[in-house]
UniProtKB/TrEMBL annotation:
Cellular component, GO annotation: membrane
Annotated keywords: Cell wall, Leucine-rich repeat, Membrane, Repeat, Secreted, Signal, Transmembrane, Transmembrane helix
Cited SUPFAM superfamilies: L domain-like
Signal peptide annotation: 1-30
Main location group: membrane
Domain Leucine-rich repeat-containing N-terminal plant-type: 40-83
Compartment list: Membrane; Secreted, Cell wall
Annotated organism of origin: Prunus armeniaca
Family indicated by similarity: Belongs to the polygalacturonase-inhibiting protein family.
Coiled-coil ranges from the UniProt annotation: none
Protein name: Leucine-rich repeat-containing N-terminal plant-type domain-containing protein
Family matches, as InterPro entries: Leu-rich_rpt, Leu-rich_rpt_typical-subtyp, LRR_dom_sf, LRR_N_plant-typ, RLP29
Length: 418
């Protein structure tokens, strides 16, 4: 009786050798150098298929390096940074001055880059909505999709990104309201939604960590929020349709450097607490604010180079206080100011500290000037249409000031203020 063969002898010898060779032979050159996960690579190819370079003579084509057959996309794909084979930073577009940017739309496959911490889209003409699937990218710290043509609402799912530090969706065509949870994100420091068509009222709850909040040029309505984080340094709600008083909202914002509430429908008295040392930009123009500029207190503000205060086109009354002397660009035109200009302003003009002083269209009755003295060439002073004739050589006014040098005497004799 023949001996029973061993189990492994049922495989022909050549097959056994093939198995051994497969186990011992090192992987091909391409396999060794494939340093990106398959999921991330597929996502990048999908992104490339959804976006395209805008043709422009001489411009650098962003996607020219995105070759799916490349052995190491992490080091050869423009705008891609990886850690341990996973994409962590994605910058779409060159950002160069000669580049018109990208066109197309943002694909949902962006959400497959699950280790992504930064998503940046340079200015271009990308259209369509912001994918709601971005809310799945729990590691995202920066989203910047500025200066494109994105439409639709801000996805509510972005409120799930608890690690988000910076969100910049400015200069697009976004609509709808600001998602309630967005301003409550615990790590959010910078929120920029300027120049869209966002409507509705501001959320009442705003993150206690915010440093920079920019919502200008939208269609926001309703009152200012009841409170804001004391950490704010930059705040702009300008060019909206917000109404109501300013009140004491900014009393506790002692770190605020830039405040812009211009071109709204705000009313009520001008809060005297806004005139303090930290604010270097105070923009309240074209509202319905009343009251007066406060006198100099025990600690007068010290305005530095580049400082600007614009209170023009309101209903501010009373004599001009010296508190704003030293502001580099000061706009007080189109109000109801009376009396003589304090000498502190004249001194600041002659020293060149104040470079722009617009006082036109008020009821000012005097401007003390030394005979024969001339202002520096760098200074712009406008005093037209007041209850005085501007001194010779001091009629440098914008075209909007009109051609009349002074008010009719009848307006000055009957003018009163409350």
């Amino acid at each position: 009786m023949a001996a029973k063969p061993h189990a492994h002898s049922s495989l022909p010898l050549p097959s056994l050798l093939l198995l051994l060779l497969l186990n011992l032979t090192p992987p091909s050159h391409q396999q060794q150098n494939q340093k990106i996960s398959t999921v991330d690579l597929h996502a990048l190819i999908s992104i490339k298929n959804s976006l395209t370079d805008v043709p422009f003579r001489g411009a650098t084509a962003f996607f020219s390096t995105w070759d799916s057959a490349a052995p190491d996309p992490c080091s050869t794909f423009s705008g891609v940074t990886c850690t341990a084979g996973r994409v962590t930073t994605l910058t779409l577009g060159t950002g160069l001055s000669d580049s018109p940017g990208l066109a197309g739309s943002l694909p949902p496959s962006l959400a497959d880059l699950t280790e992504l911490t930064q998503l940046i889209l340079f200015p271009g003409i990308v259209t369509g909505p912001i994918p709601f699937q971005l809310g799945r990218l729990a590691n995202l710290r920066v989203i910047s999709l500025t200066n494109n043509r994105l439409t639709g609402p801000i996805p509510q799912t972005l409120s799930l990104l608890s690690n988000l530090h910076t969100l910049d969706l400015s200069y697009n065509r976004l609509t709808g309201s600001i998602p309630q949870g967005l301003t409550r994100l615990p790590a959010l420091k910078v929120l920029i939604l300027a120049s869209n068509s966002i409507s509705g009222e501001l959320p009442h709850d705003v993150s206690s960590q915010l440093l920079h909040l920019d919502l200008k040029r939208n269609k926001l309505t309703g009152p200012l929020p009841p409170s804001l984080p004391t950490t704010l340094r930059y705040l702009s709600f300008s060019e909206n349709e917000m109404s109501g008083p300013i009140g004491s909202l900014f009393d506790s914002l002692t770190d605020l450097v830039h405040l812009d509430l211009g071109m709204n429908r705000l009313s009520g008295p001008l809060p005297q607490t806004l005139f303090r040392t930290t604010l270097q930009s105070l923009l309240l123009q074209r509202n319905n604010l009343s009251g007066w500029v406060p006198p100099v207190g025990s600690q007068p503000p010290s305005y530095g180079e580049g400082s600007i205060v614009d209170l023009s086109h309101n209903s501010i009354t009373g004599e001009l206080s010296p508190i704003l002397a030293g502001v580099e660009s000061l706009f007080l035109n189109n109000n109801r100011l009376i009396g003589k200009v304090p000498r502190e302003y004249v001194k600041s003009l002659y020293m060149g500290t104040t470079r722009t002083l617009y006082l036109q269209h008020n009821y000012i009755s005097g401007f003390p000037v030394e005979p024969g003295s001339t202002l520096p060439d760098t200074v712009s002073l406008c005093l037209s249409y007041n209850c005085m004739v501007p001194p010779v050589g001091m009629e440098a006014c914008p075209a909007s000031a009109g051609t009349e040098l002074s008010r009719p005497a009848s307006q000055c004799s009957v003018f009163t203020y409350g």
